[in-house]
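Aggregate trends can hide what the representation actually does to any particular protein. For completeness, the protein is quoted in full, as a sequence line and a line of C-alpha cells.
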Amino acid sequence: MEVDPASWSDYLNNLFDPVFDPSVPSNVSVVERQTAHLVCRVNNLGTKTVSWIRHRDTHILTVGSFTYTSDERFSALHREGTNEWTLQIRHPAVRDSGLYECQVSTKPTRGYLISLAVVVPRLCILHAPEIHTDEGSALNLTCVVSPSPNAPEYIFWYHRGEVINYESEGSVRVSVRQEGDRSISTLLVTRATMDHSGAYECAPSNTLPANITVHVFKAEEPAAMHTSRGSMGLPAGSLLPLALLLSSLLLRGEWVT
C-alpha cells in the first residue's frame, strides 16, 4: 500500500501539535524606556516557526530569530534548545502599549496574545512642599513612585544638594519597599537636629525627582509658637495699652509700691 508523502507529513505534523504554555503571563507592564520582554513558551514546536505580530496594524515583527521591521527597537531572542521565544522592545513608549501575538505556523495558525502596558510613573513626597518638626523628634520623609510595576534601579535622597551617605549618617535610615504597582522609599531620622533642616530631594531612576523643605525648630520654640509674641506670653500688640497706663499712673503720682 502506497502512502502519499504529503499526507504522511501532515499526519506526523499533527500528531504532536505545538502547545502554548498557559503559565506564561499574558499581561505585562513596564515603565516607559525600560526594556520590555514578552515571553512566549511553545512545547512540541517541531519544525514549525514562531512569529511575533503587533495587533494594532497586523505588522509582522519577527519570524524565528529574524526581525522583519525597520524599527530597531524590536528584536527576537531565542536560545537554541529551549522552548522560549521572546520579543524584546528597547526604549518602549506609551504608544507601544497594546496586544502582541505569538503565532505558530500551524494550519490554521495558532496564537497566544500578550497585552503590553507601558506606563509613565509619577513621584510625590508625602506632606510636601514643607514639613515642620521639633528638635529631638523623629523626622519621617516618604516618597512614592506610582505606577511602578518594577522597583527602580535606585532611589537617591539628597540634602541641600548633597547625596546622603547612609553609612556615615548613623541617625538616618532609608528603606525601599514595593506595594503592588507602587515603589515607596522612606527616609527616617531618629532624632532631628537643626542640621537636618533644609531642602531634601527624592530622585528615583525611573522618573523625575521631587523636593520637600524641612523646618526643625528648637524645643523651646516649636513651630506653633513661631509668631511674634511679647515677653509675658502676650501678643506684642497688647503691650502698648499697658505701657500707656503705667505712664499715666506715674505722672499722676498714683504708683503704688
The first helix runs from residue 5 to 15. The chain has two helices and 19 strands.
